[in-house]
Design brief:
Layout: H1 6-9, H2 16-28, E1 34-35, H3 47-58, H4 71-85, E2 94-97, H5 99-111, E3 117-122, H6 127-134, E4 138-143, E5 165-171, H7 183-195, E6 199-203, E7 226-230, E8 243-246, H8 252-263, H9 268-274, H10 280-306, E9 320-324, H11 332-343, E10 345-346, E11 348-349, E12 361-365, H12 370-385
Helix pairs in contact: 2-11, 3-9, 5-6, 5-8, 10-12
The structure holds pyridoxal-5'-phosphate.
Length: 386
């Protein structure tokens, strides 16, 4: 009675929630809190997408769709890969999911045996570990170096790969660091992983939000690589809950069975709307926003350098910068809470993302305009100099 499944104990809550909660309380008292902790764009979806969503409701297109997604949407995604990334991806290989989160759960269920482990860099997106726990497996966080952009050193892979290792999960651009993997790196990762009989997943949810470095897809390297993506970030559709996974041809049938059983289908209104995401006008708007993010990034990086806070990984993509605060504190979480209390700036502590050195870092999300960013930087400067 009243006893949760033991796996729930292994799921860590987000530490940033404590920051968010306190931020809300402070805001409720009338204080002006600057939010740099939130990992979602401060934009809404382009107009064509919103209108197509409204039309889908008006037309009554609100029932289940095929489990793998609307054929028109899958075709649109496939054409986007061809046009934008010169990658040939047959629509049958695309499974539309409720967000990239749905895709990650599907991936864990599809490819990871219970009792096995999956390698991923420390730090990385925290939910990955938890999706594996749901499947009775676990993440093995591989120690990385800030000087190597927190990417897994592929020449030491034998130190980490054991007989229970099922594969490796990477992300580019990365959350929390913003680092972008090069095509050469992902090619080598595929060579190393496939030589050991494992699978490789590349989470490309921040695809398109690249300011410096390669904006490519791992699908152009090998069709046996699994790739995850989403409408949440580039298309600013976080609450529409729509993403996708591209699987190798041999995995389509298994992935379809799982999609049917796990979700029945992704949200239909969101799927009808998302067909418009690849329209020229929508892509032009997304590109303008990419430029806006790029300008914010420049402002943030310049401001951080001026106040002497080192950005530890090359912040080439997504909308994140990972910053070393170890000269100031040995407890990033406490530092975040104190900064919030005293200067009303909310950041995410590194401890949400990793184990080894995560207490040294904080994540900045540049999801507010440049004036707000400048104001945040001047408050942080005052806080540090106090
Ligand atoms: C790296 C990464 N993967 C997956 C997700 C899940 O995104 P969604 O389910 O909104 O598509 C996120 C969300 O922040 C993320 O940062």
């Amino acid at each position: 009675m009243n006893k949760l499944a033991s796996r729930v104990e292994k799921i860590a809550p987000f530490q940033v929630m404590a920051v968010l909660e306190r931020a809300k309380q402070l805001q409720a008292t009338g204080l002006d809190v600057i939010h740099l902790e939130v990992g979602e764009p401060d934009f809404v979806a382009p107009q064509q997408i919103n209108e197509a969503g409204q039309k889908a409701i008006a037309d009554g297109n609100t029932g289940y769709t095929p489990a793998n997604g609307l054929p028109e949407l899958k075709t649109a995604i496939s054409q986007h890969y061809r046009k934008q990334y010169e990658a040939d991806v047959h629509p049958d290989r695309i499974i539309v999911t409720p967000g990239a989160s749905g895709a990650l759960l599907l991936m864990a269920s599809l490819m990871v045996e219970s009792g096995s482990n999956v390698l991923m860099p420390d730090p990385c997106y925290p939910c990955n570990r938890h999706f594996l726990i749901q499947c009775g497996a676990q993440a093995k966080l591989v120690e990385t170096q800030a000087s190597e952009g927190f990417s897994i050193n592929l020449s030491n892979l034998d130190d980490w790969w054991d007989k229970h290792t099922s594969g490796m999960w990477l992300a580019s651009p990365s959350n929390p660091t913003g680092a972008v993997l090069s095509k050469e790196y992902v090619t080598s990762a595929w060579r190393e992983v496939s030589a050991r009989g494992g699978h490789l997943l590349v989470d490309e949810i921040y695809q398109g939000l690249v300011y410096d470095g390669d904006d490519f897809t791992a699908l152009s390297i090998n069709s046996d690589i699994f790739v995850i993506n989403s409408f949440s970030k580039y298309f600013a559709m976080t609450g529409w809950r729509l993403g996708w996974i591209v699987v190798p041809e041999w995995a389509v049938e298994g992935a379809t069975k799982l999609a049917q059983n796990l979700f029945i289908s992704a949200p239909s209104v969101s799927q009808y709307a998302a067909i418009q995401a690849f329209d020229t006008a929508s892509l032009e708007q997304c590109e303008k926003r990419r430029q806006e993010f790029s300008e914010r990034r420049n402002t943030l990086l310049k401001g951080l350098a001026e106040i002497g806070l080192p950005v530890v990984a090359p912040a080439q993509g997504a909308f994140y910068a990972f910053v070393d605060v170890s000269e100031i504190t040995d407890d990033a979480m406490k530092w975040c809470l104190d900064l919030l209390e005293e200067e009303h700036v909310a950041l995410t502590p590194g401890t949400d993302f990793g184990v080894k050195d995560s207490h040294k870092y904080v994540r900045f999300a540049y999801t507010c305009n440049q004036d707000r960013l400048r104001e945040a930087l001047s408050r942080i400067k005052r806080f540090i100099n106090r």
